[in-house]
Amino acid sequence: MAEPDNFDTRNRQHIPIDVFRETAAYTFPSRNQERKPLRGNYAAHAALLLDQLATALGDVPLPADDPRLAVQGLKSGTIVEITTLPPAEDSRTKAVKVPTALEFPTQDVVVLRSERNDDRTESALLFVPDDARAFLQGRISEYGRDPGNQRRPDVERFEVVEEVRAIDTGSLFTGAVDLATPDIVWWELWVRQPVALADRLVNAARNVNIEVHDDRLIFPDTTVLFLHGTAATVALFATRVPGAITEIRRATGTIEPFLDRGETGLGQHDWVVELSQRVSAPANDAPVVCMLDTGVAAAHPLIAPGLRGAWAYDAAWGADDHQPNGGHGTPLAGLVLYGDLESLMNDARPVTLTHGAESMKLLPPHGFPPTKPPSYGVVTQGAVSAVEIERPDALRSFCIATSATDFPPSRPSTWSGALDQIIAGAMPGEADDKVAAFERPKRLMVVATGNVSGGMAVDVLPSQPLEDPSQSWNALTIGGFTRKEQPPAPPPVLQAAVPANHRSPFSRGSQSLPDDLTPIKPEVLFEAGNMMSDAAGFCGWDPSVSLLSAGSDVAGEPLVPFWATSAAAGMAGNFVGRLQAARPDLWPETHRALIVDSARWPEPIRKKFIGTGAHWKTGKAATKAKKQAMLREFGYGVPEIGRAVLSARNDATLVAQAELQPFAIGADGRTGVFNEMHFYDLPWPKTALEQLENEIVTMKVTLSYFIEPNLTGKAATRPDTYRSFGLRFDMKKRTETSARFRSRISASQAKDGTEADGETSCWLLGPKAIQAGSLHCDLWRGRAIDLAGHDAIAVYPVGGWWKSHVGQKRVADKARYALVISISAPGQQVDLYSEITTLVDAKEIEVLLG
User: Fold this and answer.
1) What positions does the domain Peptidase S8/S53 occupy (predicted)?
2) Same domain, yes or no, for 694 and 836?
3) Same domain, 451 and 552
């Protein structure tokens, strides 16, 4: 008797839908919004601003008394600080923003840096050249005059400005700084473009006996220089070149890879030998995961079969794993190649490696001086370039399991910005090539969130903020969950800090960061181990709830416990290697999207999102803001490799990979405008969905692309100045006509005069919740018959520096993206897949026949 069909079996390739893509002109749809005046007396407000500005600027110094250095290309001027007014107490506004229009670029009146304040105001450092003072004062005066029947001039510039004040010596520094400390350290100076200005600033600094390193990081609007001196010396130099420097940061990072483990190795040589005899090496052309870490024990019997290369950023360091107590790079390599060794040690089946590993030592061993400059951005870019020179043709991803604690994750750092450049194929040498942006090599990189150390449970268990560089937009940021809760025995004096299938207590998140300015991080979770808690409530790591991996002391302790988000990053590397081995034809953007699409929350976490019936949880405890906060703690769940690689009959995944030109030069020949978008009339399984009627189904949409970063002082409050371009998606509403859908998305599309019926939102977040980042994901949950009407999707651009910075000559560049849509009816005897592929086949024949 034939076995019944199993509709849940994953044995079908994902479905490409590129044939359904239609390119259309895109114009941002204007929306009429009534403005409410924010000032009762504009004349008085203008007078106050003029008075504050005069006080903040002070008098222009006489030439003989002017301490400012003469630097070619830099106007003499003064920096003032402006602050916006706070929003009304009952306002739902995230913050009153510093207006983009506040700047007058032709006068070189520019915002150097902006930041969000706790009271929902924003502050900015504004550079005012001496020869632009009268101009700025005149514009404020005009703003205050009675406009009669005309629109008040410059209201969008000055209305929200609450205060203008002078800056102090430390205002350009990010974070607290003690100007009295005598310590001589490295500093990052963020210098405005052009690069020639940075070159002249180097000469000016050296002329006053400040050491400047030859290495630098280059972004479209900023060159990062590295100066060696005391805080007071650097601050004094900055005050002598006002307008050249947008901010100053301490150029060091406290690497915290959670290495202090003590003497805990398991020393099971017979296990290692037995397993190594079952291992088959990966194919020569198999993909590799390159670990940027502490080196590797290349002779380890479990590492050697899969190791494809081991190097160091500085050859004098050696390529071995220098970390004590079992190493760090070696156990990371063990997880990358095998995953958690515990299950393999309890098995007897052959193990065929699908992918290899590479090791690039990024961190100097003990006794070696720190890298100069101590910039992990510079070192990481150099390490990536060195690996690709050694083995140029490998299909490669990267894994970083270290983090720094110096910089707040609420804004990009030079390290996170450097990662974004690496991933986008936009490192300085690559960006200079005459290769189109979308054709440059893209790279997939997984980065750990950073770790929470042990301590009292009341302090450890609440989620803590990310560590640098895991705020990187383009990286796939890895948090931790755990299935491990078995205490050591005997005696049972300890208990697991969290139950199985919860967020690991080691893992960090982004729920404390501004959700309109920062990406949702982490995107996904992997096994990170648990902590054990004693009777007093103290939590700490324990080998019984850690992962098992290879150790660097091959002769003494070849197996060691490994835990925290370093372990999660290693598990993520293993997942990426397997996915790239299964689908080497797909882009890195697509691999990233498939990883997120395949993720599902463990049941205890899922219950925090799912209500009764077809709905997400609602009420005060489950607002859109609360749901986004939960996403920023748990990500989109734990990825499943079977789901990432293959579809099932009742769980189909649609994939598109496309190039798009988001912007173009406008009719005036001087400004950037929106250019094009993509529509997909989807091959939708309407018949199958209608047959399911009121059964609950889910849809997940993931849009993935890589931006080129523009690291400026304004990036913390203006995501559109950091990204080169942005993309968004929107789906056709259930009762919406195709024509109405198109006209709603773009003003350039013809309107048909109809309106969609109001409908209860089945989306977890909804399109308005998507702000920052280069990966956007949302979930739809509802009745199958309702999903049948959501049969079209649009991908359209939002602003970025390619559009706003026309002088960079990137406005006509093409971008590329991956779009993944999955429809799932788990447990249902319904063939969604076949209905979709039938429609795809018909469309391909239609296109072929013209």
Assistant:
1) 286-637
2) yes
3) yes
